[in-house]
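In the design runs reported in the main text, the only information available to the sequence generator was the tokenized backbone. The following block is the verbatim input for one such run; it is reproduced so that readers can re-run the procedure and compare outputs position by position.
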């Protein structure tokens, strides 16, 4: 797309109108297979997102504009406009200057505008509402119409240079990689500098990343590499975005959490197992479903559940026989075993008592009773596990 195309003219006009009317909302730009979002408060631009590499853009912008800034992602409330939230907190905590924060937004906006200008065509849609960040606390942080217009004009010049250099078939979001089958790396006379480039051009660093690292314009750097692309020495590839800071934080938190207790359900009926799973999983427990205990016994021993629900009437073996067998093993000697059955009679209770069952629960399982039994026995088992005597009082 040329910078005088109807889409560009429409974007420039729309930005001016939003500023003049002091609008608050979200401007969505729809391309062929991508979309971008520009967020405004009272006609000033809060932030811009969209395209393929939202997280990479954030790290590039902060590295370039405020390399000493360390963001505290644990202070973010939700994932909506997390970049703007971090900038706000950085200013309020004196970790960032207003100039640096504006520079970060401008750097991100420049890359967003570049990907928009690379589209053959796009349309604008305005939505007058979105979940607003607390911009009223820092009214000077959002970019004014003049500042946005300056970023757009500089991006247009960059895009024109990109086109004039014959780079329209490439994208700065792509990552170059030095091809091993080109013969360059296998040549004994290859200079050491070329070998070191294989670490730089490894298919993970985008053209934007490399331009920042080499402190060059992305157009100049890409033009330099263009010859090697044509010679089959370097290839450019698409690369995925990085995980967002919130996703990374969640992964760390999950890795540090103590695993939830595992509860086994031994029942030849998949319906009963599914019913227990529907009760236990929302309560935070993991469930191991066993429908063929003879074949799945090794799996049970390996995973060693903290509590076992067991059907009383099963074809082979019966609940009586299986409970007695488990009590003779060292792994399950002290594991709470709760018998499930539709025959809630004195005979069944007495018989299960002498096979070593811990408790007795009627079918169909009721959520409140199931959770009460689990909490009762897991708490008792973890507090002061007693050696199995073979004579356990039943409820």
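Verbatim output:
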């Amino acid at each position: 797309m040329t910078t005088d195309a109807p889409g560009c003219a429409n974007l420039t006009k729309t930005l001016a109108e939003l500023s003049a009317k002091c609008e608050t909302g979200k401007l969505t730009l729809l391309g062929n297979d991508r979309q971008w979002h520009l967020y405004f408060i009272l006609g000033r631009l809060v932030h811009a997102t969209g395209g393929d590499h939202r997280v990479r853009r954030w790290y590039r912008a902060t590295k370039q504009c405020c390399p000493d800034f360390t963001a505290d992602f644990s202070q973010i409330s939700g994932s909506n406009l997390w970049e703007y939230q971090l900038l706000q907190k950085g200013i309020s905590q004196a970790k960032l200057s207003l100039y640096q924060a504006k520079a970060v937004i401008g750097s991100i906006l420049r890359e967003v505008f570049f990907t928009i200008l690379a589209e053959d065509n796009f349309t604008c849609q305005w939505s007058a509402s979105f979940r607003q960040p607390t911009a009223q606390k820092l009214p000077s942080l959002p970019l004014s119409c003049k500042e946005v217009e300056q970023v757009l004009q500089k991006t247009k010049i960059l895009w024109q240079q990109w086109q004039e250099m014959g780079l329209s078939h490439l994208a700065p979001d792509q990552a170059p990689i030095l091809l091993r089958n080109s013969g360059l790396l296998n040549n004994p006379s290859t200079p050491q500098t070329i070998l070191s480039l294989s670490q730089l051009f490894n298919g993970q660093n985008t053209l934007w990343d490399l331009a920042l690292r080499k402190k060059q314009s992305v157009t100049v750097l890409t033009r330099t590499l263009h010859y090697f692309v044509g010679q089959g020495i370097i290839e450019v590839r698409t690369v995925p975005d990085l995980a967002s800071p919130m996703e990374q934080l969640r992964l760390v938190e999950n890795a540090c959490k103590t695993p939830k207790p595992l509860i086994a359900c031994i029942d030849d009926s998949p319906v009963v197992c599914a019913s227990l799973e529907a009760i236990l999983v929302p309560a935070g427990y993991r469930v191991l479903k066993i429908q063929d205990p003879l074949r799945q016994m090794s799996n049970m021993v390996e995973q060693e559940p903290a509590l076992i629900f067991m059907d009383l009437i099963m074809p082979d073996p019966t609940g009586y026989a299986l409970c007695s067998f488990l009590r003779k093993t060292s792994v399950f000697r002290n594991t709470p075993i709760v018998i499930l059955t539709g025959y809630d009679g004195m005979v069944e209770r007495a018989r299960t008592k002498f096979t070593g069952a811990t408790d007795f629960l009627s079918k169909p399982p009721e959520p409140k009773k199931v959770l009460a039994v689990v909490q009762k026995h897991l708490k008792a088992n973890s507090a002061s596990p007693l050696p199995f005597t073979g004579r356990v009082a039943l409820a």
